[in-house]
Amino acid sequence: MSDDDQSPISAQMAKQLFADWASAPGLVLAVSGGPDSVALMWLAARWRHALKRGPDLTAVTVDHGLRPEAAREARDVKRLATALGIPHRTMRWTGAKPKTGLPAAARDARYLLLAKAARSVGAFHVLTAHTRDDQAETLLMRMARGSGIAGLAGMARLTERDGIQLARPFLHIAKVQLVATLTKAKIGFATDPSNSNPSYTRPRLRALMPALASEGFDSRNLARLATRLRRADAALELMVDGAERFLALHSPGRVPEAIDAGAFAGLAEEIRVRLLLRMIDQVGHEGPAELGKVETLVFAMVQAGRSGGKGILLKQTLAGAMITLTQDRLRIVPAPPRRRRAD
Ligand SMILES: Nc1ncnc2c1ncn2[C@@H]1O[C@H](COP(=O)(O)OP(=O)(O)OP(=O)(O)O)[C@@H](O)[C@H]1O
Fold first, then answer.
1. Can you tell me the ipTM of this complex?
2. Does ligand 1 lie within 6 Å of residue 175's CB atom?
3. Is the pLDDT of residue 342 over 70?
4. Residue 117: which residues within 8 A CB-CB, separation 6 or more?
5. Residues 58, 197: one domain?
6. 262 annotated binding-site participant
7. Is the Cβ atom of 128 under 6 angstroms away from ligand 1?
8. Are residues 16 and 165 in the same domain?
9. Is 287 annotated as a binding residue?
10. Which residues belong to the signal peptide in this entry (predicted)?
11. Mean pLDDT of 306-331
């Protein structure tokens, strides 16, 4: 970790971090009460005070109803927000709590509530305080699950979710720098015990971080890898757009119902995999196809193409799509609905 990572964030640096949103009508700040999001609120308030004109800030805390201390933490955030001159709202997750997959369900509910809060104040953006450390953990989690390039591109600085722009201004900032900022400003924050609960994957990976960092797998290097892969992923997607247009020009019928098999086979393997994924997702009715399964299909298509056979070389269903390959044509259409097994 470099010395820069340890120094508090200056007003000048905050101006750069928030510059993209200076002309937005309003910004919702997602503030849990932990150090990262309290720093988000404090820095955003200081930045906004220094502007003549700028977005209306609203701080929102979601109380998931999972920890008894959450209500008090939300009140602490409100007190600080008020002192900083920012209106604050607490949104409560009142829905049923599932027995399994609780963190994911809580996250989905949280983003829905944040989007609702944004709409109600006329804001198009929700800002979260995801840091470089969160990005590094995301990358490790996705590596452990065998993700491809798109997954390893990590979290984006800007994404759309629930009809709202989700912005992450601190994606390249180390958490220690946010803590140093609050320490200097003498501002307290909460610590969420579930962040170190070893029954969840993310805290277990977080515990490994110091050992990994000592071997060079630090958050800076992991986040840099995510940035590079995001760039590569965007370039590859453009190539897939081009390949789609190329196939449309060279195929005898509509893509993906009647594709020229030779034109498809001539594409680079990565482009074939991505194109198949796209086309299967376009016509399939069983949710997104798994990358590994599409890779296996592409391999099977190459083998089938080499067999020198006549008629149908390969016929397979995947994610609700039916893929048929002959010497001349590749055809991808919705698969017939699966027959229910009799009980
Ligand atoms: N209870 C909450 N209320 C408001 N904002 C929250 C809350 N919890 C998290 N956030 C926002 O989301 C950011 C990321 O939080 P955290 O890392 O805990 O999320 P997560 O559960 O890992 O899910 P994800 O990273 O996908 O959002 C925080 O910095 C904060 O801006």
1. 0.95
2. no
3. no
4. 28, 58, 60, 89, 91, 126
5. yes
6. no
7. yes
8. yes
9. no
10. none
11. 94
